[in-house]
Model the fold of this input.
Amino acid sequence: MATFEVSGFSELNQALSRVSDVPEEIKREILTAMGEEALAAVREAGEAAGIRSADPEAKHVLDALSLSKVKFNDNGGSVLVTFKGSRKDAKHGKRTRQAAVAFYNEYGTKHQRARPFMRPGIERRRQQIYEAGEKVYHRWLKSSF
Done:
């Protein structure tokens, strides 16, 4: 009959419990790093898709990109890539929210074909987004142990 011995289990258990107790400020840093990477991905994909206003006076939708504050809830936390503000349509004289302009570009309208840039941008850089959070987490791990 084979026998084996496990040593160091209590040290491993202590280390694992410390890892599960990631401070809120580190969680905030992780989510912010991931959000910034996602924001860059959306902006890059929008530029590649040619998401530009024909009106040089209008604020460019990609310039309206911003990152929300990190919010924590029972499921963890979140940070949102959003489009802030509105712009005035020179042709019709009405104001349109930048988020609506981004939506029209992403999904199209009955008069405009879809030019998806948000979903493809995030999907293409999914790994880099995760790695941005992992980098912060590993830096914290190294400094904690």
